[in-house]
Design brief:
The structure holds 2 protein chains of 2 kinds.
Chain A (H helix, E strand, L loop, with lengths): L2 E3 L4 E5 L4 E3 L2 E3 L5 E7 L6 E5 L10 E2 L10 E3 L8 E8 L5 E3 L3 E6 L1
Parallel strand pairs in A: 2-11
Antiparallel strand pairs in A: 1-4, 3-8, 5-6, 5-9, 7-8, 9-10, 9-11
Chain B lengths: L4 E3 L2 E4 L5 E6 L6 E7 L6 E7 L2 E4 L8 E4 L6 E5 L8 E8 L15 E2 L3 E5 L1
Parallel strand pairs in B: 2-11
Antiparallel strand pairs in B: 1-3, 3-8, 4-5, 4-9, 5-6, 7-8, 9-10, 9-11
The chains are: A mainly beta, B mainly beta.
Chain lengths: 108, 121
């Protein structure tokens, strides 16, 4: 069975500090990994996916198959980054499975 | 483009009553998902449609939950009878395609609606 673990429910950092949101997954194979974000009073939306190898809003995430991790990183956090972040996994032809989420608060 | 539309936004019912949620996906999206998100947890897939056929309903409590997607467009999710533990946000999402290997990975991106917050008292 595929599973996504986000060990931190809450994470607070100061503006300008680096931030890392952890995500570990369990799946034997080549999954597709995503980060979704939900800002206050807005709908859940895709932030980035590992296949694209892109940086969105300064965030990057690298898939580490050896450690089965897909941590989300940003070198300098901004107050507008405060939101709920969900890591998600999809194996070929299977459902999209979400972690329990991390609430990021960026303090001024 | 218009996003995924859901209604109602909020619903409060008593246990053992029935309730229905409606979802209108993005035009042209073949895949439609219903997720249940209990407070403090991530979204959990209840059912996934490809056009009007069910792809995955392994986590749908079929004794009380049902869903349909007539004509492969709009979808309704029903709970009958509701229990206290059904209190959650019900999210609908849609994507162009599902799970197929394609170079156009954006085709598999799931777009979410605002959700329906259900409170069972």
């Amino acid at each position: 069975a595929q599973r996504v673990t986000q060990p931190e429910k809450l994470l607070s950092v100061f503006k300008g500090a680096p931030v890392e949101l952890k995500c570990n997954y369990s799946y034997s194979g080549s999954p597709e990994l995503f980060w979704y974000v939900q800002y206050s009073r807005q709908r859940l939306q895709l932030l980035l996916r590992h296949i694209s190898r892109e940086s969105i809003k300064g965030f990057t995430a690298d898939l580490n198959k050896g450690e089965t991790s897909f941590h989300l990183k940003k070198p300098f956090a901004q107050e507008e980054d405060s939101a709920m972040y969900y890591c998600a996994l999809r194996s070929p032809g299977r459902q999209l499975t979400f972690g329990s989420g991390t609430q990021l608060t960026v303090l001024p | 483009e218009a996003g995924v539309a859901q209604s109602p936004r909020y619903k409060i019912i008593e246990k053992r009553q029935s309730v229905a949620f409606w979802c209108n996906p993005i035009s042209g999206h073949a895949t439609l998902y219903w997720y249940q998100q209990i407070l403090g947890q991530g979204p959990k897939l209840l059912i996934q449609f490809q056009n009007n056929g069910v792809v995955d309903d392994s986590q749908l409590p079929k004794d009380r939950f049902s869903a349909e997607r007539l004509k492969g467009v709009d979808s309704t999710l029903k709970i009958q009878p509701a229990k206290l533990e059904d209190s959650a946000v019900y999210l609908c999402a849609s994507s162009l395609r599902w799970g197929l290997k394609t170079e156009l990975h954006q085709n598999t991106e799931a777009f979410f609606g605002q959700g329906t917050r259900l409170t069972v008292v």
